[in-house]
Amino acid sequence: MGTRLWLVRHGQTDWNFEGRIQGHTPTELNATGRRQAMELAVAFARKRFAAVYASDLPRAMQTAAPIAAELGLGIISTPLLRERDLGPYEGLLEPQAVALRRSSGAGAGRGDLADWTGVPGVETDAAVWERADRIFREIIAAHEECDVLVVTHGGILARTIYKTLGIPDSQERRFSLANGMVAVVEYRDGWPFLLSLADVGLMGEGRPTADTATARGG
């Protein structure tokens, strides 16, 4: 068995609900996000984890807090797990972001708030994956053959799944990035292997959680 990383996207914020671009902006969970964090804590209560890591942004730390408390563990926070730096787009609503992308010559995109491939002024796909891969390998070195909970953001989750499955960065995303989504990635001989992609909300209520990483919803 290799080290298994349980990657969790943070709970919902008001900006998620509004379709507003967050990036490094220090937003906090709303009531729905706090409920999602508690649901995750319940779902993980019987699971044994060696450690809990989280992005240092408030929405990730607030998602990790009830889970870590339930597990009796502290939280190791790091900026390496932050969302993509979205520069001039942070704080904009999706229609405003589309307009700015067009004016910059980057095109309107596909209505996907996780799709920033080749957009000027934002952190590149390669840079996001470089820091994600760096912290993942640090975690693996510290917790060999263990399960580790990692609370992060849609951008990190997307790049991890793309790299793990060998999906080209230019390919349209065809999986959900709902708040509270869980991806389980096992590292085998240094290579990631996707074990599971699950929506805890779907399992608990019988309907999918809204995919707040896309303007189309779902």
Key terms:
alpha/beta, 218 residues, 18% strand, globular, Rossmann fold, 6-stranded mixed beta sheet
Poorly predicted regions:
none
State the distance separating the first and last CA atoms. Answer: 35 Å
List the domain count as a whole number.
Answer: 1
What's the arrangement of strands in the largest beta sheet? Answer: 3-2-4-1-5-6
Indicate the CATH architecture. Answer: 3-Layer(aba) Sandwich
Classify the helix fraction into a percent range: 25-40%
Number of separate helices: 7
Structure description:
With 218 residues, the chain is α/β, with parallel strands linked by helices. It has one domain (3-205): 3-Layer(aba) Sandwich (Rossmann fold). The chain contains 7 helices and 6 strands; from the N terminus they run E-H-H-E-H-E-H-H-E-H-E-E-H. It is globular. The chain starts with a strand and ends in a 13-residue tail after the last helix.
